[in-house]
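Quarterly update, task 2.4: iron/sulfur cluster-bound model.
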Amino acid sequence: MGKETSISDHTSAESFNIIAKVSRGGDLTKEEIIRLLKITDHDDLQKLFAAADAVRERFVGPEVFLRGIIEFSNFCERNCLYCGLRKGNKELKRYRIGEDEILAAAHRIKDAGIATIVLQSGEDPFYATDVLCLLIQRIKEETALIITLSIGERPYEDYAALKRAGADRYLLKHETVSRELYARLRPGCRYENRRQCLAWLKKLGYEVGTGCMVGLPGQDVASLAEDILFVKEIDADMLGIGPFIAHPLTPLALYPNGSLDMTLKMLAITRLLTKSTNIPATTALATIDPQAWTRAFNAGANVIMPDFTPFSYKRFYDIYPGRSSKALNIHDFLEVLERELAGNGRVIGAGSGYRNK
Ligand code: SF4
């Protein structure tokens, strides 16, 4: 009689076959993604991360691209249950950064040798589209930076005007594909509208980023698998995947945070399936574990977004607790990053960091 096959042997073999299939360029079914999301065995996890890292090396290369982010307004009209910027959070001190200060931060990004600026805010109608267009034009004229916007849902005409003014990329996380969860966590928002916005942005020629949260109250692995399939379906150029982190001044204050391992599994599987998508090691990951960035870079990530929001505003962009509010010394940051990356055969990217389709 041959050696008896244990359940864990069977599980490892099954995971290994799925990883091998997707590494060879095959697609994954929802059930196969769920299988990978359920991996708990340490060796299997390492195989998954190593496979994602190999795909990253093959399709994206060793470069880690930097995007300098400015969070220019923490006003928001929405009331998302998970977010500290929600309108219902009356304890948050609100701010808006003026055009000249934003321009000064753009110059600091340029001077640091970073090619992309990310302009991020809550959904703040104060910044009308014509105001933003003038800002974009000024940034382009003075710095020639690549401009990414992350300012939420707007009408088609606004997206078109912002594109004409010079915006190049747009980040709009879908947050979750679960209609039920979306409706519950984002009161007054429609999932279909989010999808429509993403389709418009694609049509207008933006590089489009989306993404989701991991560990939302009520979220299950089937729903997470659908998030991955959604990202693949819309052929996202960029992807932000971060853990849910409970904010004490929101209705979800008492729920547990999303797990680091599950977030890394999501990141790795997405890398395996989408190949060339730009995937950041998010600030939210670093908030739950100081080692998380290194682990994310070893599981498929290839982007990092240093925060250039002026020091006096930084701590008020309080989406979730625990974000660093220290002043960023970009030169020290780059030195440390370069050293850490070099240890893993990686380098800081010098070019534009557009997705290499
Ligand atoms: S998640 Fe975005 S839209 Fe929702 S409250 Fe926060 S900043 Fe506003």
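Highlight for this quarter: The chain has one domain: 10-345.
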